[in-house]
Amino acid sequence: MCIAAIVYLRQLSSLISEPWLALDDFNATLSTEECVGCASLSRPYQDFIAAVFDTELHDIVFQGPTCTWYRANCAVRLGRCFCNVHWLEASPNSIVHHLIRMKSDHRPLLVSLGRSFSHSKQPEFYIDTKTLAA
């Protein structure tokens, strides 16, 4: 996980008071249980853990295999979806689905909102294209 991504998560959490989520391959783990067969990757990234804790982000519940990235005998949960408390209040049934890998070493992720969004207006979606290019 690069420092820029940690700074970005911190900025989002301080600037946006509406429901939001961030779905990405964060290239970092929160615990040793998220790594299988990877001695060099088995240590959680402390700056990432601190950023998630400090910004009070929530890791949305997922369905499917725990690991989202695979290479040889190494499997790690790198892909995940974080949200703020406002998202949890507005869409408490959100689930992240870890889908089947096709030709990539990453599992695609799909966010399901469950029942309708409980906000008074339709949610607005914004894709930050700067992070897509990274």
Keyword list:
alpha+beta, Deoxyribonuclease I, Chain A, 3-stranded antiparallel β-sheet, 4 helices, 25% helix, globular, Endonuclease/exonuclease/phosphatase domain-containing protein, Endo/exonu/phosph_ase_sf
Structural class: alpha+beta
- Give me the strand/helix succession: HEEHEEEEEHEEH
Q: What's the name of the CATH homologous superfamily? A: Endonuclease/exonuclease/phosphatase
Overall, the morphology is: globular
What is the gyration radius calculated from CA atoms? Answer: 15 Å
Can you tell me the CATH topology?
Deoxyribonuclease I, Chain A
> What is the helix content?
10-25%
Going across the biggest sheet, name each strand in turn. Answer: 1-7-3
The largest pleated sheet is described as: 3 strands, antiparallel
Q: Total helix count? A: 4
Strand proportion: 15-25%
The CATH level-2 architecture is identified as: 4-Layer Sandwich
